[in-house]
Amino acid sequence: IRDSNRSGRVGSFIIADETGTIRVVAWDDKTQYLENLKEGDLVLIKSGYVRDNKGVKEVHLGQRASIVINPENVSISKDVGKPLQKKISELKPGDLNVGLLATIIQVFEPRFFEVCSVCGKRLKLVDGNYVCEVHGVVEPSYSYVLNAFLDDGENTIRCVFWREAVQKLLGRDDSEIQGLRQN
Question: In whole angstroms, what separates CA 75 from the centre of its chain?
């Protein structure tokens, strides 16, 4: 992430316990934790702090924070993290980990965009070259997004699917979806 006052790395993941779900934001060297995390891991966060992000609370991992992945002698209910089933009319900004039971009523073709082949960040086209803000001029890779409209019998909503979610929705792997870009 870059702004006028600072530059560095940022990454995030979602955690849940018996009381709810929250986004965890890792800054700078704390992003290394993301490399070792996988779905279903238990995490013990030490010295994190809470920030408000447009009305939604987040746990941030700053300089003093640390994470223990899968700490010994710690357990959590197996039902934790299951999506809360809602209707479209019940959705609110900031909802996390929500499940919808709906019918897909319209699907649009995937849109492809250029990303850095090293770090995966979106590229800018500058004087005919694709430029990554971190790695400079690079040969692009491609990522994708797909939009669809869902209907739960009472309301409709547009849903945006990114890379892995597109793969699940279409039942195709990355190479098959990349083949769609070339055709």
Answer: 25
